[in-house]
Amino acid sequence: MTTDPQELAELLPAPGRPVLSRDRHRVLREHLMRYITHEHDTIHEQSSTTPTAPRRPARRRLVLVAAPLALAAAVGLGVVAVDNAREGRDGTAAAADHQKAVKLLDRIALAAADRTTLTARDDQFIYTKSQGSAAELGVDFSSAAELAGRKGMFTPKPYNGAVRQEQWDAVDGKADGLRKGVAVADPTQKMEMDMNGVGYLTFRQLQALPTDPDALLKRFSGDAANVSAARRTEVVVENLGAIVDEATLLPDLSAAIYRALAELPGVSVVDHVKDAAGREGVGLTFKDAPKGYAWVFDSSSLVYRGTTDAALLGVGVADRAGEVPAG
């Protein structure tokens, strides 16, 4: 009996997507190159009796060629030339700022992709710990009687100091969550409230999101796809900001978020910026963002630290609401 290879092939399932994402391939490749370089240097040092200085890899040199501006014959033309030159300088500065942000986001994405994915069961909870203002985090120190008598939209009771919030969200969104808040300067000011229903997106829904930056941008642009670039950036940053905390548990999604941000106009780097917990790092801000607002990353590890309004102090997986994950 003979067997046709084509018939066997048709019985097999179609090949799936690559196991490793683009960023993971790049991370592994860089690890391999560092290993090869280390092995080469070790062999060289063992085979030579004369110590030599480590060689730096050759870098491509960029040469900028400036074209001279022609002098205008008329005063009016001279004014136009000056205005155009000023606009050109402004445009060049903006382009340089954006390019700096793109390079930083590339490094941030690679660092995010290199982290370990945390798995979670449907009966577990995603735990996040944050610090910021009461209004930003939605912490309310009102009494139970005040809350029971309140009508209309939820508005936190005014509190000027920093607060810490812990939150537990069901992985599949089916169980009730929990939120706790405490005033940093006055631990007697406390809040605890059950959270019914699903928030923005469940962890399972986050896992189903595309990890292609373009597809992610399309998904989170919403109705802003046909409006101005600045408005689109605002909408995308707001939507991605709502998932970035929990996305730190999903390396591929986290890396895709940062690569998506790199495609938005008006993104720029802010050096020596502090998150809402006072930790200094490197920041990314956006055109038309509120004054002083930025996403903050650790300067060394490039780990996401939160924003200037709400710092991310911890994230993990807990077995029960109210339980703090180990570590």
From TrEMBL:
Q: Which InterPro entries match?
A: CU044_5270-like
Q: Does the keyword Transmembrane apply?
A: yes
List membrane-spanning regions.
62-82
Protein keywords: Membrane, Transmembrane, Transmembrane helix
NCBIfam families named among the record's database cross-references: CU044_5270_fam
Full protein name: CU044_5270 family protein
Q: Which organism is it from?
A: Streptomyces hokutonensis
